[in-house]
Amino acid sequence: MPGGVCAVLDYEVDMMSEYVAEMATRVVTPEAAVTSPFRKFVSQILTSTRLPSTTILLGMNYLAKRINTLKGQGPYKASEGQVWRYLTVSLLLGSKFLDDNTFQNRSWSEVSGIAVSELNSLEFEWVESMGWRLYVNLDMSKDYQAWLENWRDWQSMKKRQVAQASRERLASVVPAIDTDIARYSGHRQSPQSRYLQEQVAEYERYQAMKSQQQSYRPRESGWGHTSWGAPLTPPDSGYGTPDYAMSATSSNDRYNEWFSQAAAQYANRYPQPPAHSTFYPNSRHNSYSGHYHYSQNMWEHGLAECSCTGCVDPMKQQVPYFVPHGYSQPVMG
């Protein structure tokens, strides 16, 4: 049978001390609470004797039987001091039953602080009430197995309580994560969210500038009063236009017909003034023949800004952009 002193304990001293103190108080004085001095007393005994769990649980079995015997003899009420003495004797008997060569009553007196004479008297009364039958079959005894199962359950419960207390302590230290994204204002947004908003705003500004550039058209003075129709060049004869087999440029007849119609339409829309001859008596200029002039338009470059003779006369000497169709008869002076 296991007994004696353990070099390596099969339990935690603090947890076993709390268990023994709680169970002893519940058995001897059920109405009382566990006191801190009594818990320290139990821890001192277990630390000094280094009893195995088998000896401790067997001693608790002896303690329960002793209290039941006392209650069966009549009204029973124990004091706090009696809990200390009864627990010491129960552990002493359990140690002697499993290993009678380890401790003597003098050793238990030194550990517990109870006089040797008092320990001897209490031990005698105890074993006498039991009929000197200390033997317990640890494998077959239902009482001992009940204590063993109770210790295991209590130990598991305490471990769960310790883990729960540790989680609650950490939860009070670490702040909870706020998952309500809607409560975040602009200055609390994440860097990625702010970057996306900046990119969207930049794209919208770019689209606005692009639309303004497309809607803008340069305005010139000639556009305000001149309405232009079709250009004087066919639509498929511009620069870079490929030659197709059935295009207008591939057929001279169709091209000439289209050009004649466009020229006639242009002449009807913008009538020409009658031919006249212009003579400047200024000695600085030589006389020149008069000829037909088209009305000035935006296609003719070098137009004068004013109508004085000093500005208009030099401009008249420039060749117009469009070559006139006819020539006037020179006037001999």
UniProtKB/TrEMBL annotation:
It holds the Pfam family Cyclin. GO terms for cellular component: cyclin-dependent protein kinase holoenzyme complex; nucleus. GO terms for molecular function: cyclin-dependent protein serine/threonine kinase regulator activity; protein kinase binding. PANTHER family: PHO85 CYCLIN CLG1 (PTHR15615:SF27), PTHR15615. This is Cyclin N-terminal domain-containing protein.
